[in-house]
Amino acid sequence: MSTQVLITGHLHESAIEGFKANKAFHVVYAPDCERAELLRLLPKAQVLVTRSETDVDKQVIEHAPELKVIARAAVGVGNIDIDLATQKGILVINCPGKNTNSAAELTMALMLGMFRNVPQAQQTMKSGGWDRHRFSGRELRGKRIGIVGLGNVGHRVAKFARGFDMEVYAYDPYISPQVFERHQAKPFYDLNEMLKQTDILTVHVPLNKETKGMITGQHLDLMPKGSYVVNAARGGIIAEKDLVTRLENGQIAGAAIDTWDSEPKPLPALLNHNNVWCTPHIGASTLEAQIAIGETILKQVEKAVAGGVVDYPVNLPAVGVIDNPLLNAYAVLAEKLGSLIGQILSFNPKSIDLSYRGDLAALDHSIVRLSLMKGYASKVVDGYVSFVNVETHIEKMGLTISESTDPNFQSYKSALKVRVRGADGAELTVGGVVFDNRYSRISLINDFYFELEPAGEIIIVENNDRPGVVGDVGHFLATRGVNIDSFELSRNRKGGRAMALVRIDSPLSAEAVDAMSKINNVLAVHGVSL
After folding, report:
1. CB-based contacts of 475: which residues, under 8 Å, 6+ apart?
2. What is the pLDDT of residues 151-207, one digit of tens each?
3. What is the value of pTM for the model shown?
4. Which long-range contacts (CB under 8 A, 24 or more apart) does 386-393 make?
5. 320-441 in CATH: which number?
């Protein structure tokens, strides 16, 4: 059965073609549809791909009982009810960084247009006029720019501003001093102190509960009289009515605005003010940015629908963008190990302990833990499991999750070990490693060591270490027309027990797995799909 993907925002044609080419998707493309039409289309939608024009509020979410993924084809998610989506178990993803350069360049364009009166000069010439002296402006060189938010866009603005020989100040309470130094921005740990020394204020933070209205009239009053303001981030970060008042009394000499508190109908007093330079939310509206956003949102939706680890989750607790290759690889591996546990566990578990070893021990493990839980729950829970609702599933199962680190582990550069314990003392241990930040391997199942890629159809055979078992297993598969892709064998001691991980080209039926377990000296057989 296909997954219905409702797209309500304009995407580059290459992205639309990509969505339609995926045979697992039934695509409904309705860009900028009216509210009534949106509500009509929602009941069957399992994925909603949006831009800023669609408010994904309570009414929208309540009208979409099958919705599993909300994909924001941009970075800002202020138009989405994240809390309600989280309560409903809906994964929200976005595309940070794809329009970074475009937004930073527009910020500089707005500043230049404002300081050099470019729009007014053009309009005068288009009307047949010629007045060089009327449009005398000011230089950016030497001006003190105060950047609120030194993230993806903010640090690019800092770089561009230095190119104009501006003095670059920055305020961002969530980054380390080294980041300010890296981007050659003078750090301010008090916003008010920075504003007192700022000629041009530009904001580059997301819109959320903390940033809504964060720049008020009181803040603007701290700036030197005749200063300037730029907002190419999100409408509502700067209190617009307060800004209008300061424009009217001359405290603020000019404002350049791309994003508005009320779109597409901005506050008239602000829009129509003579000292406001404006654009209709076009920060990401470049060909390069739209192609990148389209490619990214397609890949992320495909990962999410397939139950994979997405790179840009919005509503995962304590987890942001996975920008560390090693961490991303271990998140994928952890989900595979969780799935493996769910398929081979033979007792009722009580607790799961994750041990992060080597280089992995020093990283934030939140996404790895969630990935392990999701992989496990996806195999044992009846119902849709996402990164958003997996902790609830685990809690309902009565499982205790614990974590430990072993930074001195030396067998591999990094490794993940998972031990599952049952109430009766039974244990299952699985482990995995990642080589070169990319190549993941199953390295351990109980006392047996391997290096097998966790992918495809795998038969796990545990047997007494006796001659002829490997041949019997191969013959069994051959008689059923099943080809062996790879065969890895491990034993705990000579004449003791052995285990084989056999990757095959096609899955075995439950009946065939049961029949294989009856081969002489075979103790247990599990069919695993990873």
Report:
1. none
2. 889 999 999 999 999 999 999 876 777 778 889 999 998 999 999 999 999 999 877
3. 0.58
4. 386/68, 386/89, 386/90, 386/91, 387/91, 387/310, 387/313, 387/316, 387/319, 388/85, 388/86, 388/89, 388/90, 388/91, 388/92, 388/315, 388/316, 389/89, 391/317, 392/89
5. 3.30.1330.90
- In angstroms, the Cα distances linking 35 to 78, 251, 281 are 18, 40, 20
- Tell me which DSSP letter residue 116 carries: H
Q: What is the DSSP letter of 2?
A: P
Q: Which of 281, 286, 268 has its CA nearest to residue 232? A: 281
Give SS3 for 152: helix
d(Cα 330, Cα 337) in Å, to the nearest integer?
A: 10
The values of phi and psi at residue 500, to 5°, are -120, 135
In terms of residues, how long is the chain? 530
| Residue 294 · residue 11 · CB < 8 Å | yes
Instruction: Give me 304's structure tokens.
Output: 């999410």
Full DSSP string of 283-335: TT-SHHHHHHHHHHHHHHHHHHHTT---S-BSSSTT------HHHHHHHHHHH
Distance between CA 501 and CA 441 in Å, rounded? 12
Quickly name the fold that domain 456-530 has. Answer: Alpha-Beta Plaits (3.30.70)
Question: What integer is the mean pLDDT of 492-520?
Answer: 90
Residue 40: strand, helix, or coil: helix
Q: Which residues are catalytic?
A: 234, 263, 281
Instruction: Look up the CATH superfamily of 100-278.
Output: NAD(P)-binding Rossmann-like Domain (3.40.50.720)
What is the per-residue pLDDT across 108-140, written as a single tens digit (0 to 9) for each?
999 999 999 999 999 999 999 998 888 999 999
Count CB-CB contacts under 10 A for residue 464: 14
Which of the 8 DSSP states describes residue 226?
Answer: T
Decide if 3-98+289-315 and 320-441 have a common fold. Answer: no
DSSP string for 243-284: HHHHHHTTSEEEEEES--SSSSS--HHHHT-TTEEE-SS-TT
Map out the domains of the chain as residue ranges: 3-98+289-315, 100-278, 320-441, 456-530
Domain 3-98+289-315, CATH: 3.40.50.720
Token pair in block for residue 464? 């007494």
